[in-house]
């Protein structure tokens, strides 16, 4: 698919550290107390194996990069913040439902 082709192009710069996320590089997740309100992020913070995966896996990082671009693109189209959050959430729920996935279960599988 077109998205898979784009992801392949993005993976290399992550591997060579030419693209990075500032919040990951500065250990932002552990410093920002607002994440404590989220069950998902609480699970992530307690799971070192998954946290390592989501901060080093080039495929995951390239998907995250595309998600951020989608969010920015929607903003440039004039979609307000609440609608952008909702659209991104609904998109992920649709992907989960179509693929019979559960993000909590997926994160739990990383536990030792």
UniProtKB/TrEMBL annotation:
Taxonomic lineage is: Bacteria, Bacillati, Bacillota, Bacilli, Bacillales
Q: What is this protein called?
A: Uncharacterized protein
Species assigned in the record: Listeria monocytogenes
